[in-house]
Amino acid sequence: MIVRGTAQWASVFEPNELSGKFQIDVCNLNTETVKSLKSVGIDAKKGTGDKADKGRFITAKSKKYPPKVLDRRAQAMDGSILIGNGSEVKVSIRPYAWTFGDKTGVGAGLNSVMVTSLVEYGGSEELEPEDDFDDNEVPFDTREEIDEL
Predict the structure, then answer these.
(1) Are strands 88-100 and 22-27 parallel, antiparallel or unpaired?
(2) Which of 20, 61, 95, 113 could pair with 40 in a Cys bridge, judged by C-beta atoms 3.0 to 4.6 Å apart?
(3) Which burial class, exposed, middle or buried, applies to 112 when counting CB atoms under 10 A from its CB (0-12, 13-18, 19+)?
């Protein structure tokens, strides 16, 4: 089964540190995709609160095997460029049954990922340069340390 959406938290080259699995959130799924997923037993979650930008989404996972990751030309990606949130993706999944305690359900197994429009992960861009920065000014109170050198 193929699903299209936007990627978030793509851990497709290395397992996710928290879950220990290869995984990707496929977000902003359209109505037709949500219905197709439901027909095989997969419930798309609805992003709420600080996750509202996810829209309807699934988390596709693979416990043991890394997924094949391709660019839009079907060329293999090697992990030297990481997939950032907001990248457009086409993801091959397979439904699988799961049981945990007394709960059961159907999950989305992760087969492969094609990045159709890459937003390269580069960390946070939240720090802006200061307009009134003086190149001769010593930031913080380190003058004593400098004088000792």
Answers:
(1) unpaired
(2) 95
(3) middle
Question: Is residue 1 within 8 Å of 93, Cβ to Cβ?
Answer: yes
User: In 12-143, where do the E strands start and end?
Assistant: 22-27, 45-46, 56-62, 68-71, 88-100, 103-117
Query: Which pLDDT tens digits describe the chain residue by residue (149 residues)?
Result: 999 999 999 999 999 999 999 999 999 999 999 999 999 999 999 999 999 999 999 999 999 999 999 999 999 999 999 999 999 999 999 999 999 999 999 999 999 999 999 999 976 566 677 776 566 665 555 555 555 55
Residue 120: beta bridge partners?
Answer: 83
